[in-house]
Amino acid sequence: MQTSPEGETHELPPYIVPHSQEPIRILYEDTHLLIVDKPHLLLSVPGRHPINFDSLMLRLETHYPGVTAVHRLDLDTSGLLIVPRTREALAGVARHFQARNIAKEYRALVWGSLENSSGTIDLPIARDWDNRPKQKICAETGKSSITHYEIIERRADATLLRLTPETGRSHQLRIHLRELGHPILGCDMYAHPQALAAAPRLCLHASRLAFRHPVTQSMLRAYSPVPFDLNGPLSQRPG
């Protein structure tokens, strides 16, 4: 709850609820860049609202002055991020992303059981200006957006997927899986009420990265294990 100057109280929007105090894991470090594991409910960069000003980049800045953001994960998505420490590394990693030379892999637990064991979702994504910060599928104004998926494990009520996006549009994995008819469990933006209530968090995690170091040219690979439960009954979202 938040109190206005007039004494009225109102619920805060879901994107400015209290954030994570979990530590950031540093998986790789050299003088050029970091590979870090971002916890769930921590912004990648500072938010506009003072409640969400805390972020991955601000925390890293205290120990690694000069770090910059070259890509992001949503507040409620956990997992791997590349964080350049120098301008040379920033430019090199940005070129890798532009050329799609960085292999990214996600894990997602989605509603129901998919018919096909693998497939590709190719649907253009545009900003939904009337429902910001949401995105929408739009053939007229949307940008090309491609997601490959593969089933890892089937359950009676949900399916664990390996996702390898070719593009990196905002909310791409969430909205693509919603359009497939299998929204990500715990998604408060694109899931129907049953899928939202089926997990206590967004079941989306950036689990693997592989790319060539922009300075040394050595291959770097990183892995982060899935932090949400896959085996027990689906827990209920706290009220």
Give your account of this protein's structure:
- By secondary structure, this protein is α+β, with helices and mostly antiparallel strands.
- The chain has a single domain, classed as Pseudouridine synthase (2-Layer Sandwich).
- It has helices spanning 56-61, 87-98, 172-179, 193-197; strands at residues 2-3, 9-10, 25-29, 33-38, 78-84, 103-111, 118-122, 125-127, 135-137, 146-154, 158-165, 204-212, 219-223.
- Strands 3, 4, 5, 6, 7, 10, 11, 12 and 13 form a 9-stranded mixed sheet that branches. Strands 1-2 form a two-stranded antiparallel ribbon. Strands 8-9 form a two-stranded antiparallel sheet.
- A hairpin with a 3-residue loop joins strand 3 and strand 4 (33-38).
- The protein is globular, with a radius of gyration of 18 Å.
- The protein starts with a strand and ends in a 16-residue tail after the last strand.
- 33% of the residues are buried.
- Mean pLDDT is 88; it is low at 1-17 and 232-239.
Itemize the secondary structure elements and their pairings.
Layout lengths: L1 E2 L5 E2 L14 E5 L3 E6 L17 H6 L16 E7 L2 H12 L4 E9 L6 E5 L2 E3 L7 E3 L8 E9 L3 E8 L6 H8 L13 H5 L6 E9 L6 E5 L16
Parallel strand pairs: 5-12
Antiparallel strand pairs: 1-2, 3-4, 4-5, 6-11, 6-12, 7-10, 8-9, 10-11, 12-13
By DSSP (H or I, 4+ residues per run), the number of helices equals 4
User: What overall form do the CA principal axes indicate?
Assistant: globular
Which fold name corresponds to the CATH topology? Pseudouridine synthase
Structure summary, number of beta strands: 13
User: Mean of the pLDDT scores?
Assistant: 88
CATH class: Alpha Beta
Helix content: 10-25%
Domain count, please report it. Answer: 1
What is the rounded Rg? 18 Å
- Which sheet architecture does the biggest sheet show? 9 strands, mixed
CATH architecture identity:
2-Layer Sandwich
Segments where pLDDT lies below 50 for 5+ residues? 1-17, 232-239
